[in-house]
Structures are given as C-alpha cells and as structure tokens.
Please model this.
Amino acid sequence: MSTPQETVERALGFSRTDGCIVIADESSGANLRWAGNTLTTNGVTRSRRLTVIAIAGESTGMVSRAGVTPDQVEDLVRAAERSAEESGPAEDAAPLIDAARAGSGGAWDDPPAETSVGVFEGFAPALGEAFAAAQDDERLLYGFALHEMNSTFLGTSAGLRLRFDEPTGKVELNAKSTDMARSAWAGTGTADFRDVDVAGMAAGLSTRLKWGERRIDLPAGRYETLLPPGSVSDLMTYMYWSAGARDANDGRTVFSRPGGGTRVGDTLSDLPVRLYSDPAAPGLECTPFVVAHASSREASVFDNGLALNPVDWISDGKLAALLQTRQSAELTGLSLTPGVDNLLMEVPGATASLDDMVANTRRGLLLTCLWYIREVDPQSLLLTGLTRDGVYLVEDGEVVGEVNNFRFNESPVGLLSRVAEAGRTERALSREWSEYFTRTAMPPLRVADFNMSTVSKAN
Amino acid sequence: MRQIDQEFTALPLRALADAALSRARDLGAEHVDFRLERVRRQTLRLSDARLETAADADDLGFAVRVVKDGTWGFAAGIDLTLDAAVRVAEQAVEVAKVAAAINRERIELAPEPVHGERVWVSSYEVDPFSVPIADKVELLADWSRRLLADDRVAHSDASLLQVKENKFYADAAGTVTTQQRVRLAPVVTAVGVHESGFDTMRSLAPPAGRGYEYLTGTAWDWDAELARIPDYLAEKLAAPSVEAGVYDLVIDPSNLWLTIHESIGHATELDRALGYEAAYAGTSFATPDKLGSLQYGSKVMNIVGDRTAEHGLSTIGYDDEGVETQSWDIVRDGRFVGYQTDRRIAHLTGRERSNGCAFADSPSSMPLQRMANVSLQPAPDGPSTEELISGVDRGIYILGDKSWSIDMQRYNFQFTGQRFYKIENGRLAGQLRDAAYQAVTTDFWNSMEAVGGPQTYVLGGAFNCGKGQPGQVAPVSHGAPSALFRGVNILNAVKEAGQ
Model:
C-alpha cells in the first residue's frame, strides 16, 4: 500500500489534461455511545479516499473513491478526465492557485496522523464512574463520544503540496430522571479528550435535574431569554452557512439588498458584535487552506490550496463579509473571503458568565439547548425548532423551576438586533450542528422578546 | 430481474467473509456477521443551466460485527485482503472486550431463519451510471433553459443525485445475500426575484427507487411539470399573505409524506420508543404501554410499514442483519398496533422475529434500526382530491414539502410547503404566501376526516433521513393519498419573524 503522498504524486503523474488537483484523505475514528447507564454501540473506523479533479480547458471532472490501491490510481485519473470531457464548461473556471496565494500546512512528508480507541483511555473509566454514580443517584446517563483524525494531502499540477492534520472530537452527555420526566444536556468539543471533565459535566447536569424538581407551566409568547453559548452557536452557525455571497448577490437570501447587491455594510446589531473565523484560533485550529472536493455555490475546486486568513463576518455590529469563491468575489466586487471551519463571536468588554447573567435577570427564561432547527422563510432567515433538555424560569436572579418546552420561530439575523447583553466568549458545542461543525466559541446572550411560538409537550 | 454488477460479484466476497467469520468464531464470538458494500454516488448540479457540480463518489469497504460475551464489537476496514479481513475481525472482538467494562445490558438477537444464498436486485430499467454524464447534464440544462425562458424566472437550479448500492452480507448461521439497488433524486427549482423580495418554486417529483427511465417519461410527466412551474412561481410571488388561524386542510401526498415520516415513521421506531435514541434523535410518545390501545388517528387511518414496495427507497430483499424484509400494520383503523424493529430490539421486547429494519449507510457504519417505507393507505373506493376539496368551506390545499421540524417525542410539529391554495366554498381561490401548519401528532391524525382513493396515492420520500451517532442517513419512501383534516392551526411566517 502506498503512502498518501506517493498516491498524490502517482495520480498527478498520470494526468494528461490541462490541470489536475488530487486530494488524499486519510481518516480514522473511534466512538462510544451509551444509554441508560450502559454502553450501547461502539466502533473504530478507518477510511482512505482519493479525489481527482481533472481540468480540461474550462471543464472539470471529479471522481472520488475509497480504498484505492496503487494499481487503481490511473483508472481514477482517467475516469475524472472522461468526466471533464463530458461535463462542459464550469462556471467557476479559473487558473489554479499558485504558491504565492497558497496557504501553509504541516510537513508534507510526515505520515498521516491517526486516532484509535486509546484516545478514550482516560475518558472511558471516568465515564464508567459517572455511570455508577448516576445509578446510585437514580439518574440515567445517555450520550456519545467521538474522535476523528483527518489528514488531508492536497497536490496540484500547479505545484502545490499541502497537508493538514485536523483532529475533531466531541462529547455529549445527557442525564435523565428515571421516570424520564426531567432531562438535562451538556456538550463540548475537544481535540484530544484530555480536557474533558466527565465528572464536572455530570455534576452540572445533576444541578439542572434538581432545578427541574419544581415544574412551572408557561404559555407560548415572547420572553426575555438567556441563550447559553451552545444555543448561540446553533443559531449563528446556521446564519454563517446562509451567508453565501453568490446567493446574496442573486437576490435570494436574507443578505440580499432589495433592488440588487448585498447587504454588506448594514448594521445588524446595536451592540459591537464581532463574528469571525480564524484558522489559527487557539483551541479551534482548522485547515488553513481551501479544500474543495467539489464545487458548489460557496466553494470552488479551482480555489483548492488558497490561503485562509482571519475574517470578520460581522464587525462592530455591521455585516462585513460573505462566504466567497474567487468567482463570486469578482461578481460582487467584495473581498475574497472563503469559508473557514470555525466560528467565533465576541462582544468587546463583555465579561459576564452565564451565572452572572442569571443573577442579573428579573424575569426570563434560561435555555439549555435548541434542537431540530429548520429554515422556514429564507427572506428573513426565519428558523423553527424546539427547546430541549431544560428550560428554566429565572426570577429575581435565581432559577425557580423548570418550564415546559417550546417550539420557537426566530431569525438569527432578526435576533441580533434584539440582543440586550452578551457575556464572555467560551468554547461552545452546537447541539444541532455538531455532526458537521464543532469548532465554535460563543458568548451567552440575553435576547429580548424571543418568540416561543407554541408549547411542546415533549420532555 | 436485472443482474448484480459483475465488477461487484468479481470481488473476493466469500473468501473475505469466510476469513472474518472464522476468525471471530475462533475468538469466541457468540454472533458474527460480515458485510461488504460498494456504494456509488453521482451528483450533478446546475445553476442557471450551467454546470456547477459534477462529482462521483464511491465507497468500498467491509465491516465485521460481533457479539462477544454479550457486548457488541464493531470494526470496519478498506483493504480487501484476507489478512485485513482477519485483522478487522480481531479488532471487532477487541472492541467488544474493551466495551464490556461499561456494558450493563447483554446483547442477544431475535432468531431469523437461515436463508442460504440469496440474490436480490431492485426494480429499474436503465442503470443511471450507464448513461454518459454529458447526456444527463444536457437533460438538466434543457429543463433549466425551459424555466429561464420565462422572464418571470430569475434563476434556476437543477440537480440529480444518483446512487447504486451493492451489499454483500454473510453471517455465521449461514445466510449469504448479495443485493443491488438504484435510486434517483431529480429536482428543479425556479427562483423569482422582485423589488420587495424573492421566492422559489420546486418540482414535486419525488425521489424514487427507479432507473434513468424516471427522467425520460416513466412514472412522471416532466414536460407538464416544467411548463407549469413559472406560472406557479409568479402566482406565489403575487399572492396575499395568509391570515393566521384555524383552517380545514386538504393535503396532497407531495406534502403529507413528510408529515407521515416525522410524526409516524420516527414515532414508531421501537428503539426510539425504548429510549435508545433518547440523547440524540429523541424518544417517542408512542411508548410500548400504548401499543394496542392508543387511538393514533381517526378510523380512516391505516398505516403500513413495508420494505417490499416496488420502487420504495427503503425497499430491499434482506436487511443488514440477514432478515427477510416484510410488510406489517403499524396503525389499523386509527389504533396503534405495530412497531419497526431490528433483531436486538425484537429480542429485548420478547418478539419472535425482527421485521427487518436494520440498515447501515456505508461499509464503515454499524447497522441501526432504520425506517421502513411507512405509508398511509388510501380508501379502496375513496374520493379524488377535487372531491375532498369540494367538502371544505374555508380551508387550504397544500402541495409539496419544504420546511419541517418536530419535537423530540414527536408531539409538536410544524411544516411548510411549496404551494398553499385558499379553498372557498369547495373551490380553489388562488395561492397564499407565508403559511405553515402546526399541530400535535395525535390531534392532527385524529382530525383526519377522509382519505382519498388509490387514484390520489403517490410514493414520496427522501434520501437523507438522519439518525444515530455517528450520524447515518437512510433513504425512505412514504406513500399517501390526498387527505382531509379539520381544524388545523395555520401560522403566518412573516408575523412569526416579528415583521
């Protein structure tokens, strides 16, 4: 079996068309899943995928296969070339990225990084102890732990050779009372599981389950609401994904300016909100160059290797940038700001913790997390979804009991204009989107008039 | 019946299986199964009739699943060598040993007859992977150009997802299955932009377990649908905003399939009802104590779970645990009577046999209990859609799915659609904008006054039903006739956004 570096060189060597991009992805993963204080499923996986993008004039053909052996590489290149010949011109055609515009990654020659079930060496015993403690305390623990390591090797016929090792991990822990009537959730992203405090997470959930011993029914309506960082991540991540420059310029998103163009420059929040991405953000490091296996409205295969730099999407409360390819940047006349695989929000000077914000609340709702979020109306980016695993009523600075769940209808864009207070930014895991996006840091937010559209009987 | 692709049957399927099964048995596994899969996917996307994405992605690999000392062990590999098969079997046993320390529930599987060697191929005529990309791109470009020729259409999107799935399964009991199925999801969308906003109109053709013939005239009239989309879009853009309130609804199968999926399909998964998905996908209000007694819906409601329906996306001969697929009642005359199960959950709940709902979405995924084609049955001599509409004084007729969301116990849901028509005195009176319907599952299904006849029945569905951690996606179809519901809450999405 060849190394990924050898495979990339081999594929480029077989290329007969005007250009060629080769991406070798080496991935390994380990996971544990548990329910009712017992393990339910587990697994270790490995995958190896080779993607060849052939460029013939303005046409591209992309073929991606798993488990390619050295004697199958030429077949893959030829399949991509046939696809390029058949496909017709690509609308995002552009010269390949050269060294001057390329990002930098790790040492090309190093072997791919790997993970294994050993990553849970410290975590699994701690989880076992948490199961035992939960059993003694008549609580049930559910959850999931996942660790993946992806090593990406990108080579192009323009001479680029870039690689990056990206670890991705997360833990979700859910505690329920034995009658399943009360439930609380906590989650965190992690690069290596050494920073996961299972006992601390379980203790926090116990506190929340105790809050739930007093039940208060509230009707649907608009409430002052404290969103924890994870829920802010739920909403901001979807907004980020909806910030494509091409669609905005085409007049088909919330960031389209009526009559033409985009809303870049518009004030979205009266607070000096900063929403940004940075491939080098401490603890949230991610691939520092474009890796596009296929073109889409927000990504172009021709941009493969392009350096990713820190970018402010919202700066001082104003929309500052949209997700761009070289093609859309030219079309819109805006800066070239491709998407980055992390997202952070900060409000300068905001230092309060979520607990501090609870203490400063006269009457409002404190959420745990949001779930099943879907777009209702793209014009306003209205989203619907549910509150889940604990909605608490805060009165005079204290949690006084657990409230029923609600279906909400809210727009993250509209919501930004109603943010009354932000707290200190911390690493956050989106409950809804963590399968795709784990690297976020968000502050807790106090939002006026959050729209709880109807009551949900679910608990 | 079509033949299994030779390039799949030429792989060393039996040799790898024998090596893995034998090694796991030698290591003391009580149960062992081996699954080798090749999944071919091709995605084509056009924007304004120009190619945006042409991507082929193939997966090939195998997995070994064991039960060792009452604990699951699962491992997957990609090198198709005997050594690798043995190594992955050892790894699966090792994972089971490590996991045993935190397993408190002994894994046992419901028995399944040994089926010996079986071959199954889905029902299709033309393998879409045999059609040149250029032909497919030209077809989508032609569809796009037809939309763009109308000056009320500002932009068009067209896409075609194609999947061919080969599964080889062998277990230590002696069942050996080799299967192949094909599915397509063609979609076109027209976008209209005017000074005060924008909107879209999407085709209603459902994804289907069919071949390329589906795009060229079999089972769907594309010419007719494409011709109407600009008119539908223009009418929607000019339509008045709905007044929120309570309305009678006539729901077309192009919309109702998704409501069935969320409020019945997921709610009657037994693993979910028992709490095994509690931390992620959620649980279900339809708990086992309600089986046989819960009035899920009105007397006209009959729901069947089925993995055998021709052209169904969940249809297959044998599931990923070697269980022969079946058809069974989930709701009969409105009463909740059945669940979907896999072998583990069937045994756990004292059932004699699984009804064949295990599915893994890739060679490296562990099988989960996944959804059958769960379908609402039409009334044998039931009314047409027009006859259902004629029975409504003040209501709304809904076509096409769009937005969906439901809570974690499957009570509270909210759906939008492609088109909402006002009904006045039994007749359609133009489109409405900004509508969404919101209800509680059992209230909604008990408000169903009538279902249409077989002439209104359509098999809808999706490729991307998500479940489990690590997340997996499964294709599934849901058949439905048109149906009449009384007194359902309609929201105005613009007002919900506070505008």
In short: Chain B has two domains: 6-238, 245-496. The domain at 6-238 of chain B is CATH 3.30.2290.10 (PmbA/TldD fold). Chain B touches chain A through 84 residues (CB under 8 Å). The CA atoms of residues 314 and 476 of chain B lie 5 Å apart.
